[in-house]
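Hi everyone,

Forwarding the result from last night's run.
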Amino acid sequence: MRISDHFMSTDTAESTHVWTLVSHDPSVAPMDATAATLAILTMEERCRCCPPHLAAWQERRLHGAALRTASAEALRAFVEPAFGLPESPGSPPKDHLEGYVAELLWFFLTRETPPEPLARLEPLGFAATDSGGDGLAIHRQDSGDLMFRLWEIKKNTGAASVSSTVNTAYGQLKAKATKYLARYATAAQGLALPPDMSALYSRLLDLWVDESEMAAAGIAVATSTGHLPSQCFSTFGDQFPGFISPVRLRGMLSAINDFPAFTEKVRGEVWRGL
């Protein structure tokens, strides 16, 4: 089951950056099926340390099977920080929920169809309101050396244009990159990583500040199909001029017919297993 199979992908290479348009294809899968796929992938990721609770969630969602008390309590704990609970649908706020689903969509699309060979993809935050970096991908270059790409991920669901949202993402990534990378470097200290990857994590901040060829930037935006602009990420190179020789800037614009409605459907599919 791959979320990428529900979308059509088109790459556009510019002189300073590359960006990908990922459009939902309703002829392949209706929005309900896509929401169900994303919900299942999300719960598999969140509950991979607890296979019995994941299996209970799947049986509950598909067949309405009663949950043991332990599974019922555990699943509520796994679900509430990101999606809230049916009895409190306003928490997390709609804005945060949409942002979290945008991150989920980016995460699984990147994991399934990485733009470069993927060596490691940092897990997403556990709660919809978690602070810190939105996404960090470690890639293995053709030379065998590692590089990282720090991502800023946004949703576009209000009155603002996609271009305005992208510009906001540029600003946040420039202002907060070192703080994000410090968090990732600290979290990696206790991990059993290969020596070259451990060395990369220890140098994340230096490589970013030095605009090293081992550092790269990414901006991803999820929106509704009707909001798609005729062009996107046009000023990426102007915003990050130190990352264009060679080109290390990448954008992703993912679109689904009605993204706010899709977000609610994903949450509803998660709740079906409670």
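Residues 162-187 form the longest helix (26 residues).

Cheers,
N.
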